[in-house]
Amino acid sequence: MEEEESGWKYIHGDVFRFPPNKSIFCAFVGTGSQIFCLSLFIFALALVGVFYPYNRGALFTALIVLYALTACIAGYIATSYYVQMEGQNWVQNILVTCFCYCGPFFGMFAFLNTVAIFYRSTAALPFGTIVIILIIWGLVTIPLTVFGGIAGKNNKADFAAPCRTNKYPREIPELPWYRTAFPQMLMAGFLPFSAIYVELYYIFASVWGHKVYIIWSILFIVYIILIIVTAFITVALTYFQLAVEDHRWWWRSFLCGGSTALFVYGYCFYYFYARSGMSGFMQTSFFFGYNLVVCFGFFLMLGTVGWRASLMFVRRIYQAIKCE
Questions:
Q1: What CA–CA distance (Å, rounded) separates 22 from 32?
Q2: Choosing a second label site near 166 at 20 to 30 A (CA), which of 112, 180, 195, 275?
Q3: pLDDT digits (tens, 9 = 90+) for 108-151
Q4: Radius of gyration of the chain, Cα coordinates, nearest whole angstrom
Q5: Degrees to nearest 5, angle at CA 308 with 40 and 99
């Protein structure tokens, strides 16, 4: 006697229905993949002793150069997934990928640099440095993103969903409040944040204080733990979501994976008022402004990790059932 379908098995005809706003979704996944690769390259350079502890400029230079050189990863992955999800306007997708992180970052940088110039601070970057950064972005980052996007568009791989998608979406049952997106994000973000909480103080004290951080090996171990915990907690919440017949897991898994960034930004408030000793409009705007764009990059990276882990999990469980 065949086992009766229940829970997640009921929605096999909807679980691979592509998400809304797929162009933005794919751009986020592509940029998150780029930032993930960028972080691995930075750790590799740090672990072999490239960065001198008292020379922060080398680290910032490496971040700018490696971000520019890894732009092809963002373009390729974003457009490849966009085409697999039956998207038609791939040129727009490449443009969204180019600007989804650089746009907010340059906007925040322009505001904060203007504040520094107004206060006549040495923290303001000189005009020549700004021109060099813009040239790198315009002549390296954008062309590599476009090149990667064209390669992704010409990639002939199919999405190859294990189950056929129904023509009309299945109605989602009414769910209790704690199964909605925001409570799930809070649950998903707390555990990974607790794994990195101790290291955050030393990182903040190094970046915003006068301490020097040199234990890159410990930081790399914490980073690996963060990635693993994020992947597992997102997969668990995705399963719970599918078990109550809610098939809208695409954006939810991304938001849950990236929700650790909300806790990190919340920690910024604690550090600023309890530990930093900073005050005044300029210091406040610099601290919260730059941390905001860093946390946004953190959100994209961990959101991509959570979504990729969930995609692997969903593919695996639906391959194991007989879908007609």
A1: 15
A2: 180
A3: 999 999 999 999 888 888 889 899 999 999 999 999 999 999 99
A4: 21
A5: 70
For CA atoms 60, 66, 67, 68, the dihedral sign is positive
Which token pair is 132? 């060099």
Which amino acid is located at 53 in the chain? P
Residue partners of 6: CB distance under 8 A and separation at least 6: none
Q: Which one, of 22, 86, 11, lies nearest residue 317 by Cα?
A: 11
The alpha carbon dihedral of 198, 202, 207, 208 has a sign of positive
Tell me the H-state helices in the chain: 22-47, 56-69, 71-84, 90-99, 102-118, 127-136, 142-153, 181-208, 216-243, 249-258, 260-271, 280-319
DSSP state of 274: I
Q: How far apart are CA 257 and CA 229, in angstroms?
A: 10
- At 29-68, the pLDDT tens digits run 999 999 999 999 999 999 988 887 777 778 888 999 999 9
* Cα separation, 212 vs 201, whole angstroms: 12
pLDDT at 253: 95
First-residue to last-residue Cα distance in the chain: 18
Residues 208-219 pLDDT 10s: 887 877 788 999
Q: Which amino acid is at 57?
A: G
**Residue type at 91 in one-letter notation:** V
Distance CA 266, CA 271 (A): 9
